[in-house]
Amino acid sequence: MSDQPPPPTPPSDPQRPDINIEAGGDLNAGTFVGGNMTTSATTNTNTTIGFNAAQVQRLLITVGMLVFVTAGCFFTGGLAVGGAAFVALNRPVFSDNQEAALRFQSFLEDLRALPPGQRFSFGFTEEEISSYFRLILGPQQGIGNGKVRLMDVGTLVVAGQASDLGNIPFAATFEVTDEIGAPLQLKAVALQILRFGDSSFGWVAVPTGLLQNVENDINSSFGLVELQEVIQQSADAWVVTGVSH
């Protein structure tokens, strides 16, 4: 009989409380205890290595930042064009009114026929300008499902699907200016890369140059005029005053 004492049990390491080594036995994978996530596999010697509270916190922060950056890529368009623009576009307006489209076209023809120095004032509704864009001007530019919505005084948003852009839905904001021959200035453009119904999610900002032809054609339809004032008669009607050149 050996009179030597049994080997001592190795003491636990107070600096690594998250490491526990045991011989034999089974552990349940995915156990979360005291801030530590433990996993294990049944072998002759099971080793359980967990994450302490600080490591879990860093992991959550990293994942959160990745989600934020990914979402930001798709909300860029909303930020550039403006959330109010998407709200306005979702507002129901009858844009297939042929008579309303012809009335707005008649307004523009009258403007182009004015002699230089002639002052003018004309009013129009959201239904008239939206129908004109959808039924007359838009198709001439290869734009389908076009629509226009009036926003704050002097700001409007145009949307549709341009053949030059692969029929991807676009939204563009314009501001009224007093520049002669260019009464509407293109401010921001977004394309809907991912579609989620009427949500603004999935819109990505793109250079305004992609719709430069649309801006030029819209301004050409007004002729050589200078818009000096925009008066909002109601939520869906403007009166524009100016002078021809």
- Alpha plus pi helix count: 5
Number-wise, the strands total 12
Q: What's the number of domains?
A: 2
Distance between the termini: 119 Å
Strand order of the largest sheet: 6-7-8-9-10
Mean pLDDT: 79
Ranges where pLDDT stays below 50 over 5 or more residues in a row are: 16-43, 62-78
Provide the helix percentage: 25-40%
Describe the structure.
The chain is α+β, with helices and mostly antiparallel strands and 245 residues long. The protein has 2 domains: 19-51, no CATH class; 84-244, no CATH class. The chain contains 5 helices and 12 strands. Strand 6 (143-150) and strand 7 (155-162) form a beta hairpin. The chain is globular.
Short description:
The chain is of the alpha+beta class.
Task: Give the key terms.
5-stranded antiparallel β-sheet, 3-stranded antiparallel β-sheet, 245 residues
